[in-house]
Design goal:
single chain; mainly beta; binds beta-D-galactopyranose; 46 strands
Length: 740
């Protein structure tokens, strides 16, 4: 029998601290730190005991990812390593185990080793050192199931089939002989197909066919099936399961088609980093990010800029129906020959790890924004196509007329912003694909970044700037929706992120997100969210703090209301309410254009001038002629409510949960310029990640809590004026993260 157990607990870090994985080598402040603090070697050690039931079995350790250049030793002997910081590796212990206790040592190197991608140049993100993903101990029979690939053939046909390829792991070179059994089940466990065959070679391929009445995996209804594989040999039984889905995904010159239906890509780029803990937040945080992207931002795709991300994240994208464009590690710089070899290897590692995810629709096989290197990219494309003929490749560049070696021309189009930067053309949201590719014919084409550094915007920035931030995201989305030759657009980026001194605002943060580092939305988040159908969620977000004197010259006009309602009513004080429709003239192509309230709708006298009384307001969104949603603003906000919201009321042992703290006014709106500190105390079965006393930024802050024992975690957040809010989080008894 195979057992895969969590191997995260009881590691000795740097010879002194007992730590649990995932772990960041250096916990960092929120901002203004020296990123070199983690750029050195660190040591992790773990003692474990040889078990009698391991005799005759194969024992290995699975590292989901280690940053970076891991070297692994057992009882002082070097037994393997892995340079890349983003892909998993397995180290065989079997031949080196001793009776009694054994010591596993992992030396990692947080320095930016120029021989390892993405390093060698300057990169706009941080690569926080640590064993930052989970580690598992795997015990199998000498003959076991190794890599397995599930390909869905003719997904659109009434009668579907699944092609399965399996490699047998046979480190002792035994005679391969056994019986193999495969079974497909649906989520309720009903068996839909099965197959049994004799195995006498290292590789097995077979097809399960005549599968009828099956559902497609789609972004609305992401139906997954389970494939269970079993190998019976003389030495025993091995079983694995994986999930998969039936879907077709194709980028064409006329757009992107999912299951034959055109879907305009509306996405954002995601860095996998968090405040304080860098890369080292586990399953819950990874899954939560996928939910935020899908459910809060209403995106249909995420780009894993600029590296393979956690399997917890990708598994969840499969479950919730969020498309993924997955990337290899790299940023602008291409290194020497060994570096290039690692890059080609990285393509293979990424694809072999992730080829069974229905959510992944595109492999990135170019170093993000590098120059053409035909020899290198011919190889990365070849490897991708050989390993996975079912998916297209992409190569993200910022240069035009680059050699198109990939299936999809993917472009970071930062043209919007050029107009104020000495550019010689009028304000332009996106260039046409022909201008970029220089080709006479149309090709599959996708915009993979826009905005970002062209218009960094903090959640504490002036309302006027945030309104312009919103407009720029809307303009690019509108242009993408309006151009049949563009498959869609992926904005830079979802969340603010810590970065090197050479980028960002000097505070070691790139404030490029539509959400801050705690994943609290800026106004621009609603440029995306408001594009969903009202049946999904009714969105109404006036882009204002509702104050007379926040903008230059005063007032709140022009006022953008991000919404999917048909019409908006604005009631200002006791004045006669006005009904205003979405601005289709300015945004003809968006699924839902914003309402823009300006002097066409209110005279200056009506809204009042500088020096006149400022009044309350009510915005009401109408659907089918009826009021459907409302937001109220008070003209005299004072701190009224200290809100403390945990993402989950119950968590597993050794996992994390995010908690958001907000200070709200009488109408329930955040106080955008409230800088006062809150004190966060965590006791009982968990610990707080990050500092105890933190300022509010734009009316909110966040933190993560890690469960350490069974029982209750007690949170208490206090503020001088608003008192203390107590909350409890239950840690589920004895449940630990298991691999899927
Ligand atoms: C791009 C780059 C991203 C990020 C972005 C900021 O050039 O690919 O990683 O730096 O600029 O706008």
């Amino acid at each position: 029998m195979r057992t895969v157990t969590v191997f995260n607990g009881d590691w000795l870090f740097e010879g002194k601290d007992e730590v649990c994985l995932p772990h960041t080598a250096v916990e960092l402040p929120f901002s203004y730190f020296d990123e070199k603090v983690y750029q050195r070697e660190f040591k992790y050690e773990k003692i474990f005991w040889m078990q009698s039931e391991w005799i005759g079995k194969e024992i290995s350790v699975l590292f989901e990812a280690v940053m970076s250049n891991a070297k692994v030793f057992l009882n002082g002997e070097f037994i393997g390593g892995h340079k890349d910081g983003y892909t998993p590796f397995e180290i065989r212990l079997t031949a080196h185990l001793e009776n009694g206790h054994n010591k596993l040592t992992v030396i990692i190197d947080g320095s930016e080793n120029p021989n390892i991608p993405p390093f060698g140049g300057r990169i706009d993100y941080l690569t926080f050192a640590g064993i930052y993903r989970d580690v598992f101990l795997k015990v199998t029979e000498p003959l076991s199931i190794g890599l397995y690939k599930v390909e869905t053939l003719d997904a659109m046909a009434a009668s579907k089939s699944v092609a399965v390829t399996i490699e047998i792991d046979n480190p002792r070179n035994h005679n391969v002989l056994g019986q193999f059994y495969a079974e497909i089940t649906d989520l309720s466990g009903d068996v839909l197909a099965e197959k049994s065959l004799l195995v006498d070679s290292k590789e097995i391929s077979f097809i399960l066919d005549n599968l009828i009445n099956l559902d497609l995996w789609d972004i609305q209804n992401p139906v997954l099936y389970t494939l269970r594989l079993r190998l019976d040999t003389d030495s025993g039984r091995d079983t694995v399961t994986t999930h998969f889905g039936f879907r077709t995904a194709e980028f064409t010159p006329d757009g992107f088609f999912l299951n034959g239906r055109e879907v305009k890509i509306r996405g954002l780029n995601r860095h996998q980093s968090y405040p304080y803990s860098g890369y080292a937040l586990g399953k819950n945080a990874q899954e939560r990010d996928a939910e935020i992207l899908k459910n809060d931002l209403k995106l249909n795709l995420v780009r894993t800029s600029h590296y393979p991300q956690s399997k917890w994240f990708l598994d969840h994208c499969d479950r919730i129906g969020l498309l993924v464009f997955e990337e290899i590690p790299g940023w602008q710089h291409i290194g020497e020959d060994d570096w290039k070899t690692e890059t080609i290897e990285n393509v293979g590692r990424m694809i072999r790890r992730d080829w069974n995810h229905p959510s992944i629709i595109l492999w990135g096989v170019r170093i993000n924004e590098s120059n053409d290197d035909d020899a290198l990219y011919a190889q990365t494309n070849r490897v991708a196509h050989e390993l996975d003929p079912t998916r297209q490749t992409a190569g993200v560049r910022y240069i035009s007329e680059s050699n198109m070696l990939e299936d999809v021309y993917t472009m970071n189009d930062f043209i919007l912003g050029d107009f104020e930067n000495g550019g010689n053309r009028p304000r332009t949201a996106l260039r046409s694909q022909k201008e970029i590719t220089g080709l006479n014919n149309s090709v599959p084409y996708l915009v993979t970044e826009f905005n970002g550094h062209m218009f960094p915007t903090k959640s504490t920035d002036q309302e006027q700037r945030q309104a312009e931030h919103v407009i720029r995201h809307l303009e690019v989305l509108d242009a993408a929706y309006g151009d049949d030759n563009i498959s869609g657009a992926i904005g830079w980026c979802a969340f603010d992120y810590n970065t090197h001194k050479d980028f960002g605002s000097g505070d070691r943060i790139c404030h490029h997100g539509v959400m801050d580092m705690f994943r609290e939305p800026k106004f621009a988040a609603y440029a995306y969210a408001s594009q969903c159908e009202p049946s999904d969620e009714i969105i109404l977000k006036p882009v204002t703090f509702w104050a007379r004197g926040e903008r230059n010259i005063g007032g709140v006009l022009p006022l953008i209301v991000l919404t999917n309602c048909e019409e908006i009513e604005l009631q200002y004080g006791d004045h006669k309410p006005k009904m205003i429709k979405p601005d289709r003239e300015r945004f003809p192509n968006l699924p839902n254009a914003p309402v823009i309230i300006d002097r066409r709708h209110f005279s200056e006298d009506e809204l009042g001038l500088w020096g006149m009384k400022w009044e309350d307001a009510v915005f009401t969104g109408y659907i089918d002629g009826k009021p459907a949603i409302e937001q109220r603003f008070t003209s005299e906000p004072v701190p009224t409510v200290l809100e403390v919201k945990a993402d989950m009321a119950e968590i597993d042992l050794k996992s994390v949960v995010r908690v958001i703290v907000r200070v709200l006014d009488q109408a329930g709106n955040k106080l955008p310029f409230f800088p006062e500190p809150v004190t966060i105390d965590v006791s009982g079965a968990g610990r707080r990640i990050g500092p105890r006393v933190v300022p509010l930024r734009a009316g909110s802050t966040g933190f993560w809590v890690q469960s350490e024992d069974n029982g209750l975690i007690k949170l208490s957040v206090s503020h001088d004026r608003l008192g203390t809010v107590d909350q409890k989080i239950q840690v589920r008894l004895g449940v630990d993260n298991e691999p899927s």
